[in-house]
Design a protein that fits this description.
With about 260 residues, this protein is an alpha/beta fold. It has eight helices and ten strands. Helices cover about 35% and strands about 25% of the residues. A hairpin with a 2-residue loop joins strand 4 and strand 5. It binds adenosine-5'-triphosphate.
Amino acid sequence: MSATTSVESPVRLDSVHKTYGSGDSAVEALAGVSADFRAGTFTAVMGPSGSGKSTLLHCAAGLDKPTSGRVTLVGTDLKGKNETELTLLRRAHVAFVFQSFNLMPALNVEQNVTLPSLLAGQEPDRAWVDQVIARVGLSQRVKHRPGELSGGQQQRVAIARALAGRTAVVFADEPTGALDTTTAVEVLNLMRELVRAGQTIVMVTHDPVVASFADEVLFLVDGRIVTQLTAPGAEAVAATLAQLGARAKQTRGQR
Ligand SMILES: Nc1ncnc2c1ncn2[C@@H]1O[C@H](COP(=O)(O)OP(=O)(O)OP(=O)(O)O)[C@@H](O)[C@H]1O
């Protein structure tokens, strides 16, 4: 089973602005972001705390509505779509690994991993599900419930759940934050394999080593993409972050 589509750019943002609140308390979380996430690409989104990374992910996934601008997800303009339409679109084409793992406490590992496919009305590919569970190191835990697992193991279930359905798009927010280095590298290599098979992954991370597994790294500052690197090493990512941090400090000092 594969839900991947032939859309060239499964995720597109055109001049997306997002302002939270109004008047004196208004916060411009995204200040005109345009980005084209092409099929079969792995993109990392980086930037200082509060720069708009999570907001970008939420707007791109239709979990939050832009104040202005356009988001196109697997060829569908999200403007004017109601919650039911958005839910059906996401079920068919999108998977998430977010910081709160959102696992179903009453279901075991295997049931959690296959749930998105079942909800989308698709028969899970059992051999592939077993393979993904094995790759994240949970073969000995398939009958365990989330409450019986460590934080890192729960994160691995969330990753397996996101990757098992082979959806066109995967959005990930710090997907390897709770993992040891060896497991994190295994998960990132698995993500790269899926990208090579045509999936599109957009991942928020603070870690230059994690970002170095991506094809592109976008850097956000104050809700704008200020620079991007193609296939960078971890050192280049860290150097760019340091430069941006110094620039942000200077700007704050001038205010
Ligand atoms: N629901 C909300 N209501 C009001 N302001 C919000 C809301 N969500 C985010 N913000 C503000 O929007 C800005 C961008 O937040 P966002 O969470 O996207 O940043 P981030 O880059 O993901 O940060 P972090 O790295 O700390 O997770 C911040 O100033 C934040 O305070």
